[in-house]
Amino acid sequence: MKITFLGTGTSQGIPIIGSNHPVCLSNNSKDQRLRSSILIEKNTKILLIDCSPDFRYQMIQNNQKNIDAVLITHEHYDHIGGLEDLRPMNYFYDKNGTLMMKFIPIYGLVRVLDNLKKRYSYIFSSDQKKTNIIKISLNKLTENNYPFSILNINIYPLIIYHDHIPILGFRINNFAYITDASYIPSYTINQLQGLDILVINILRQKIHSYSFAIKETLNIIQMISSKKTFLTHISHLVGFHDKIQKKLPRNVYLAYDGLKITIK
After folding, report:
1. Which residues form the domain of 187?
2. Which residues pair with 162 in a beta bridge?
3. pLDDT tens sequence across 122-172
4. How far is 207 from 202, CA to CA, in rounded Å?
5. How many other C-beta atoms are found inside a 10 Å radius of the C-beta of residue 242?
């Protein structure tokens, strides 16, 4: 299984428009972060977790051409703003060279899917004469933590909280992805045991109500005891990539855009 970090930044990305913060002015490519999202390649299939407003550029930058399914953690713009750019992936050529069309399945909580229907109402309109709109199918997940399968890939949804809002993380085999968490229930901590790779968010150095700060994230990492941990959803307030990396515990790493990891 291969993981590609399409983006590792927060809702504004880095650099922030008009900001003179030193991190926003950095020439180090690892300090320049698009909105957070990852690709998972397994069994010749490609899953996308969250579809950021930077999705089009992220796919071109990483020379990626296909998405088979999309998992949505929650409905905030930085996690769904690129959905329309999935449209080129509705079409493909079969082995005979015939152009085919496929619907891309989207998975998320009922609340999240209802939000998509409102934001992208034209996609779900009854007007059958529409052209040039994305073809997607919506698949409801519940907060009951029931595992499900996509394209023969077993996935375990993880209940976490973004302030007071329940959102989803996802576990596939010994890999788990968590973003925008401010609180992880004990039962979810239990479901995260035995990981080879954990991806989890940090927002800044100081405590914030909507997302973990560094100290909080490191405490969670200790409870989970994954073999390796990569930090994502990083704001400019965390600091310079190279400087912070030197201060992190062993086997804890700041992720960066374009980073690829392989899990056996």
Report:
1. 2-262
2. 165
3. 888 776 556 678 899 999 998 887 899 998 999 999 999 998 899 999 999
4. 10
5. 12
Q: Give the Cα separation of 233 and 231 in Å (integer).
A: 7
Query: What is the rounded radius of gyration, in angstroms, for the C-alpha atoms of the chain?
Result: 18
Smallest CA-to-CA distance from 148 within 71, 76, 89 is with 71
CATH number at residue 203: 3.60.15.10
Measured in degrees and rounded to the nearest 5, phi and psi for residue 88 equal: -60, -25
Q: Is the peptide bond before 15 cis (omega within 30 degrees of 0)?
A: yes
Q: What is the number of structural domains in the chain?
A: 1
Torsion angles phi and psi, residue 242, rounded to 5: -65, -35
Closest CA to 65 of 86, 83, 80, 35: 86
**CB distance 188 to 166 below 8 Å:** no
**How far apart are the C-alpha atoms of 208 and 1, rounded to whole Å?**
33
Place of tokens 């085919």: 100
Which of 81, 79, 103, 78 minimizes the C-alpha distance to 91? 103
**What does the pLDDT look like over 210-254, one tens digit per residue?**
556 778 888 899 999 999 999 999 999 999 999 999 999 999 999
> Tokens standing for 151?
């394209």
Q: How far is CA 220 from the centre of its chain?
A: 19
Q: What is the largest CA-CA distance in the chain?
A: 57
* Burial label, 83 (beta-carbon count in 10 A; 0-12, 13-18, 19+): buried
